[in-house]
Amino acid sequence: MDAANETTGRTDLRRPLVDQKPPSDVGLESVLTERSLPYWRRMYLGACIEMKLLFSLALPAIFVYVVNNGMSITARIFAGHIGGKELAAASIGNSCFSLAYGLMLGMGSAVETLCGQAYGAHRYDMLGIYLQRATIVLTLVGLPLTLLYTFSYPILVLLGEPKSVSHMASLYIAGLIPQIFAYAVNFTSQKFLQAQSVVRPSAYISAAALLLQILLTWITVYVMGLGLMGVAYVRTISWCVIVGAQTLYITNSQRFRHTWTGLSWRSFQGLWSFFKLSAGSAIMICLEIWYSQILVLLAGLLTNPDLSLNSLSICMSISAFTFMVSVGFNAAASVRTSNELGAENPKSALFSTWMTTFVSLLFSVVEALAVMVSRDYVSYIFTADAEVAKAVSDLCPFLAVTIILNGIQPVLSGVAVGCGWQTFVAYVNIGCYYVVGIPVGCILGFTFDFQAKGIWTGMIGGTLMQTLILLYVTYQTDWDKEVEKAKKRLDMWDDKK
């Protein structure tokens, strides 16, 4: 690679991919191991290289996740302006549908580990096989989910939600069912692209889909009068547009001629083993996503459930929006870590981990300060109800603490995905979230009558405990051993071997 490319950390797409090194190989490891340079000089040069690589991945990924989450927030905004019950129904519907979102996103992270490490190790032909296997497995998993959401009304009533809201939420969920299979294709495709540091095309596609959704939702709600169901139908259509455009890009672009070689019967081999690997990833991600969504469901059991649901759903929408920034750094951390481990660069993997964590934390602090400054006004984006606005303002300090913790925790989870620690993190999540966080929240919220503040305090406690454990484990990691584990993992999953 020429000197200009070594300086910028970019690959030359005009030359065959097999003759190039991936971006993770360029410069960083040699700088960090150059003993002739003073320590702080190595750190400075390493930071310059890493920041270029990090932001080239993180910024487009942040945009993709912000836009995708914006599709959900847009749906809630339109629902909120239709009526209070519609907002509550959309909030519960989105919370319940997060089961599918979390499951598909989690199972897709297995592709993230394998594709990232395979790309770093220059085993390009396996990326397309991993993509196809994951899509098949996730599509099969979507079938029982379809049955579950078909009977969402009795399930919501059984959980104690108000019948009128449960009925509206169940209809809303029914309109979202095709999204399950859109998720199956979208998340695996995103991980396939991210592993190769290709993120911008997904950003352009997602932006176009969001604009389309806003336009079509306005037409269906205010012109056609379809109400809440119009919001659900358009949201599903928008996701199908993303999947179609992304699939066409992967299958027709010369950029992936070495990593996508077409459909192959090899993708049907070892599906059960791939399912087990994906299941560990799914449990890790689902436990994290469900944790915050359970907060919304518990709010329906509090005194004055409509006010609690509306205020918490608005706060959770803001939290989810800021969380997308951290998820962008999560994706960057996962790609950088897996690429470096696959390329046998342990010092680069370590350096990238802490650099990404630090940058993400800075962003989250700025976001938390912005929330506190606008605490009395931010709720009017979603609703004109002054009582809801006051409740949201009271919850903003809890929201600010959550945002800061979310600046660290997702990045460490991304490192875990890059290293293949999903099963271990799943156990950590169970203990911190469901043994500590939710029980403490219920005791404070119901027994001590702190209401929504008590539930949220428990959630913060669980997240803080999980973050501290992941920080300690990451600090104690032997990165040379992680390189060896990555080599063994790739050998095990390489069909030719």
From TrEMBL:
Q: Name one GO cellular component term.
A: membrane
Membrane topology per the entry is: Multi-pass membrane protein
Region (Disordered): which ranges? 1-23
| The keyword Manganese is assigned to this record | no
Alphabetically ordered keywords of this record: Membrane, Transmembrane, Transmembrane helix, Transport
Where in this chain does the entry annotate a coiled-coil region?
none
Residue ranges annotated as transmembrane are 44-67, 87-106, 127-149, 169-189, 201-224, 230-250, 271-291, 311-333, 354-373, 398-417, 424-448, 454-475
Q: InterPro entries attached here?
A: MATE_euk (IPR045069), MATE_fam (IPR002528)
Protein's cellular compartments: Membrane
Report biased composition (Basic and acidic residues) as residue ranges: 9-18
The similarity comment for this entry is: Belongs to the multi antimicrobial extrusion (MATE) (TC 2.A.66.1) family.
Q: What is the protein name for this chain?
A: Protein DETOXIFICATION
Source organism of the structure = Eruca vesicaria subsp. sativa
Output the lineage of the source organism: Eukaryota, Viridiplantae, Streptophyta, Embryophyta, Tracheophyta
